[in-house]
Specification:
By secondary structure, the protein is mainly β. The chain has one helix and 17 strands.
Length: about 280
């Protein structure tokens, strides 16, 4: 009898340690609610909604066959900054013998912030088994494809492009117009500072300069970008347009002046174009 007790005592830790641990399984990302899973490496875009689901395995049950789980889901960027507010919920249900293969399901939507950078992000899932007093988690990577805007520690204008019309998709290789054409330009503003609530306060004005830097036209009021967001807005996508009706032939300069009110910064850029 004494030898049997010794063997049981020696085996007990192994038996307990061998019990399946609480686990998050079957993670799935889709572009549609209830849709087919997207393949590994699929690239989402800024502003898109991702439908995320997963299941929980190896949960514990009470004496009356009930489960009680608490869980959270939140996406993060590569630096650990959350993209959206955390989603929290609980699952409480009765699991009958006929449901022995059933796994609790977690489902939520993730709205990718606008103007986000390309890269690999992750969805962090955390689950707590309130019956067994155990917890687990899982990091699920996903990929974003976005316009490239190089970062900057100070206020700058990047990616300046001339176009022939407001809906243009192909930037002009040579900024040459004719009198009466529409002139359109797009550019990105980055390197501004943030206030409370990731508030930004960026304004810009555009002017047309003639020979010797003489101002021939300037927009009446600055264009403003004043907003707050949960995730920091990475850059401002700016644009301008005007008619060249009656403009004489010659070389002109488009001047852009930007002000960051929160960071007390200013910057300027000039781009040359011709009217033929």
């Amino acid at each position: 009898m004494e030898m049997r007790s010794i063997l049981l005592a020696a085996l007990l830790p192994a038996l307990v340690g061998g019990a399946p641990a609480l686990e998050v399984v079957q993670p799935m990302l889709s572009q549609m609610d209830g849709g087919a899973p997207d393949p590994a490496g699929f690239e989402y875009v800024s502003g898109q909604t991702i439908f995320f689901t997963c299941r929980v395995a190896n949960y514990a049950k009470t004496a009356d066959s009930k489960i009680h789980l608490a869980y959270s889901v939140q996406p993060f960027d590569a630096k650990g900054v959350p993209l959206t507010e955390i989603y929290k919920n609980e699952a409480s249900d009765e699991v009958t013998p006929q449901d022995k293969e059933w796994l609790p399901r977690i489902a939520t939507e993730i709205l990718v912030p606008p103007l986000i950078a390309s890269g690999t992000y992750k969805i962090v899932v955390k689950v707590e088994d309130l019956v067994a007093k155990t917890s687990t988690g899982l990091d699920v990577p996903f990929h974003i494809r976005a316009r490239e805007v190089a970062p900057s520690d100070t206020l700058v204008i990047r990616n300046f492009r001339f176009y022939r019309d407001e809906e243009g998709t192909q930037a002009l290789e040579t900024a040459a117009y004719r009198s009466g054409d529409g002139l359109w330009a797009r550019f990105d503003i980055i390197g501004f500072r943030y206030g409370p609530g990731n508030r930004i306060d960026v304004s810009y004005t555009t002017s047309i300069l003639g020979a010797g830097g003489r101002v021939l036209w300037s927009q009446p009021e600055p264009a403003l970008e004043q907003s707050e967001s949960f995730y920091p807005k990475r850059y401002v996508a700016a644009s301008m347009g005007l008619s060249l009706q009656g403009t004489k032939r010659g070389e002109y300069t488009l001047q852009i002046q930007v002000k960051d009110a929160i960071g007390n910064q200013t910057c300027e850029a000039r781009q040359v174009f011709t009217v033929e």
